[in-house]
UniProtKB/TrEMBL annotation:
<feature type="compositionally biased region" description="Basic and acidic residues">
    <location>
        <begin position="182"/>
        <end position="197"/>
    </location>
</feature>
<dbReference type="InterPro" id="IPR036758">
    <property type="entry name" value="At5g01610-like"/>
</dbReference>
<dbReference type="InterPro" id="IPR007493">
    <property type="entry name" value="DUF538"/>
</dbReference>
<feature type="compositionally biased region" description="Basic and acidic residues">
    <location>
        <begin position="206"/>
        <end position="243"/>
    </location>
</feature>
<dbReference type="Pfam" id="PF04398">
    <property type="entry name" value="DUF538"/>
</dbReference>
<protein>
    <submittedName>
        <fullName>Uncharacterized protein</fullName>
    </submittedName>
</protein>
<feature type="region of interest" description="Disordered">
    <location>
        <begin position="182"/>
        <end position="243"/>
    </location>
</feature>
């Protein structure tokens, strides 16, 4: 199947032969799509092709290769023909790459970096299940050493960074110090006035609320008193005498 794909995309492709040239071009390709150079550690590459129009890439090596990524403790198998459709941060429809999970070989169908800031690279199988690992695990040895050295230097610089915080108030002239002290006192007095005003306003609101409650109670009491006032007495017998 891989051979059929290669034949289909071969016409418009850039084709290279020879181990040294193919190794160089494969690393340049990984740089171009922003993936780590150590992602395809193939040996004895006899041919590499890249069709820029379709994004199809293939690499042929003389023999299968199993490579152990010691940093993450994973073994990956590369077939004699490895193909993929590439774009930035992604290799799709990958063939010829398998990873060993426990005692089973799982075919990798996609390799991608979702968030470059996270420094994680993910490998997905045909069912969509993906696992993520640090990008640094797939750098070549020289790049990994350089990355470690850079990290160590940054840590040392951060650890030995002097304390540069200086109180500049000690270097100010006396007039400026007096002015700053007066401003500080003025701000404190203003804060006190604001607190007093806010307290007074709250007290006034409480008084108004209490007054309203008192007036409502008075209205209720007056209504109750009017409702309980006795009705005038009416005697039917006396009324008949007058009539």
């Amino acid at each position: 199947m891989a051979t059929t794909k290669i034949a289909h995309h071969r016409e418009m492709a850039e084709i290279y032969e020879g181990e040294a040239v193919c190794m160089q071009k494969s690393r340049l390709l990984l740089d171009e799509i922003l993936l780590p150079r150590g992602l395809l550690p193939l040996d004895n590459i006899v041919e590499m092709g890249y069709n820029r129009t379709s994004g199809f890439v293939w690499l042929k090596q003389k023999h299968k290769k199993e490579h152990r990524f010691h940093t993450i403790g994973r073994t990956v198998s590369y077939d004699t023909e490895v193909t993929a459709f590439v774009e930035e941060y992604r290799m799709r429809r990958v063939t010829g790459v398998k990873t060993k999970e426990l005692f089973l070989w799982v075919t990798i169908s996609e390799i991608f970096v979702d968030d470059p800031a996270s420094s994680k690279i993910s490998f997905a199988n045909s069912t969509g299940i993906a696992r993520s690992f640090p990008l640094s695990a797939f750098c070549i040895q020289d790049e990994q050493q350089q990355h470690n050295n850079t990290t160590t230097v940054h840590k040392r610089l951060h650890r030995h960074r002097p304390n540069t915080v200086v109180d500049i108030r000690n270097d100010l002239p006396n007039k400026t110090k007096v002015h700053l002290a007066a401003r500080k006192d003025s701000n404190a007095r203003q804060a006190q006035r604001d607190d007093f005003r806010s307290t007074t306003a709250i007290q006034n609101q409480i008084k108004e609320k209490q007054q309203k409650q008192y007036e409502q109670k008075e209205e209720i009491c007056s209504e109750v008193t009017e409702n309980k006032r006795p009705e005038p007495y009416f005697d039917a017998g006396k009324e008949s005498q007058y009539t």
